[in-house]
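For practice. Supply one:
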Amino acid sequence: MDTAAIYDRYAGTWFAGHSPVYAGWAAHVAATPKLAALIATLPPAKRQPNLVFAATRFLGCPDADAATWGAFLHERWPEVRTVVLGHRTQTNEPRRCATLLPALGLIAADTGKPLALIEVGPSAGLCLLPDRYSYEYDGGTRLGAGTPLLRCATTGDPPLPEALPAVASRTGVDVNPLDGTDPLTVRWLEALVWPGQDERLATLRAALATLEGLGTDRPHLVTGDLNERVADLVSAVPPTHTAVVFHSAVLAYLPPRERARFAATMATLDCRWISNENFVLDASGATVPSVHGDRFTLALDGRPVAYTGQHGATLDWFG
């Protein structure tokens, strides 16, 4: 798919109804050959709208109209290119914990053991803190006492736990783990939040404050390729704990062969597996796209159980 087509798809699918600013910028790229050609000089993996847009905002571009953004991109292109090449779309979305929690609760109830969480592609590790937040589903009773408070609308009667699962350990593996206490890193994480999503930004900041307050109890993040490290991380979990490997909006950044390799590895490991992506990996490692373009599919041990909002605001359980 060429650059203009990619940006057109993002404008109409991922950004539509979620960020008018980004929808306008993406549509402007799709309709402006010079902009699309400029972005096309980047390596293919670096042309994604989320990354290019975040880079301009990181450099000070206002959340203005598309023409203003296009002029900024042209005038500051060397700087934008440097930021894009030196960063990744490692969005930390703690609100996704609200959609992961029912699956975590099912695992905890099934095994009766504390969970040893292992996240592949954790960025700064904010989704490794599900027991440190609090939750409110459909405006009902609050679950947990931490911050931020994560609100989620549901359908299909998801199996919400009566209490937060006990977490014994938190480990993540990432090719570029981020330090969520570093000011420059925090600024990049904030730039990745789409314009107009003030609640999402406030949630990110509250979760970062929770992370900083943990001190030496912060998640243990290791540098490495998820396919190279996940088996060793699972094998290190003691039998008194339940190993849970999970990921959210990560596998889309892997080439198909590496996704298939990951699926094959997961089939051999003594662990539970939670996937929250815009596709499901079948037993062969092939991808089965979600039927809803702007939502993810939540799968437990390879079996789809729900559709989820891409940023954790909705959970449609299959029942």
The chain is about 40% helix and 20% strand. The first strand starts at residue 115 and ends at 120. The two ends are 36 Å apart (CA to CA). Residues 206 and 233 are 29 Å apart (CA to CA).
